[in-house]
Amino acid sequence: MREVAIVAFGQSVHVRDSAETSEVEMLMPVLHDVLEQTGLAARDIGFTCSGSSDYLAGRAFSFTMALDGVGAWPPISESHVEMDGAWALYEAWVKLLTGEAETALVYAYGKSSPGDVREVLTRQLDPYYVAPLWPDPVALAALQARSLIDAGLTDERALAGIAARSRAAAESNPHAQLRGAVSAGEHLVAPLRTGDCPPISDGAAAVVLAAGDTARRLADRPAWIRGLDHRIEAHALGVRDLTDSPSTRLAAERAGAFAIPHGLKGMGGAPLVDTAELHAPFTSQEVVLRRALKLDAPDSTVRVNPSGGALATNPVMAAGLIRLGEAAARIHRGESDRALAHATSGPCLQQNLVAVLEGE
């Protein structure tokens, strides 16, 4: 199979409210950054793909305005997904695998501040039985957290520990929104407290993909995508076990996370990675993902969310792409040799994407 790598990653400084900045103004510095990292010009990019949501912007086909930041003239090969940018990366990866392009620019952005993001995200729910009840993502995550606590898999103190660890890790991330000590706070929707929930974030991210020798030319240490897969749970929440994520486990298996690379010996079936960037907007969801990915062993040496994760920065529609970008950036810097990156979309980890990245 053709080799494809992430050769550059950039992101904005994420903020609570970017009212004075349009989507284009938020995107342009990020796009310029990743192109400068590779020495490419916009005309050198073979394929462009973006991820965003018209529901956040409150207007139809809002993503076409963001193309002003890319430069769509002369005409470019371009596509868009109404999903997190991680799924745009998947489309671009397939494009490069087929040989239709040598390079790809992938970007995503989200501005949650203009409206009530909790109300907006109810539109993801089943339109006949669930959406009319208006359960927001915090309430649904609280149901998931309660299921975990009732099953004896976690407790409120352990969840607070996840939040504290994530935001402490974010202190070294200049792009993170919440850094350092953050109070557990009061119950927002029991058993979840404000500290268990992600911040409302406005921000953007972008990566450049390249194939084979082109990737080696553009980056000193490309982050090779060794496997990438995404799966989905049943739409009806009532038929799912909210304490588990079979789709994450299956995506990880198909991406090769549990395979033994280069003849190394496996350890209890856990993925042989040194870093895991998990897209877990709520502390309880990290518990689910760790179990599904076999990262919950007490003696595990895998660094989980060294960037701070979505608990530190959560721009809707870009947070998943940031997980892949952060994992790739650690490989670029030589801080990781083999990393796992995860992205999710929908209520209670409904859709899940897993990638395995490696250095040379």
Uncertain regions spanning at least 5 consecutive residues: none
**What is the radius of gyration?**
19 Å
- End-to-end separation in angstroms reads 16 Å
Strand order of the largest sheet: 3-2-4-7-1-8-12-11-9-10
Strand coverage percent: 15-25%
- What do the pLDDT scores average to? 94
Element string (H = helix, E = strand): EHEHHEHEHHHEEEHEHEHEHEE
Q: Please bin the fraction of helical residues.
A: 25-40%
Tally of extended strands?
12
Number of helices: 11
List the keywords:
10-stranded mixed beta sheet; globular; 360 residues; alpha/beta; two-stranded antiparallel ribbon
Report on the architecture of this protein.
The protein contains eleven helices and twelve strands. By secondary structure, the chain is an alpha/beta fold. The protein has helices spanning 23-38, 54-57, 63-66, 85-97, 117-120, 137-150, 156-169, 212-218, 246-255, 283-292, 319-332, and strands at residues 4-11, 47-51, 78-81, 103-111, 187-189, 192-193, 202-211, 223-232, 275-277, 303-304, 338-345, 351-358. The strands form two sheets. Strands 3-2-4-7-1-8-12-11-9-10 form a ten-stranded mixed sheet. The protein has a two-stranded antiparallel sheet with strand order 5-6.
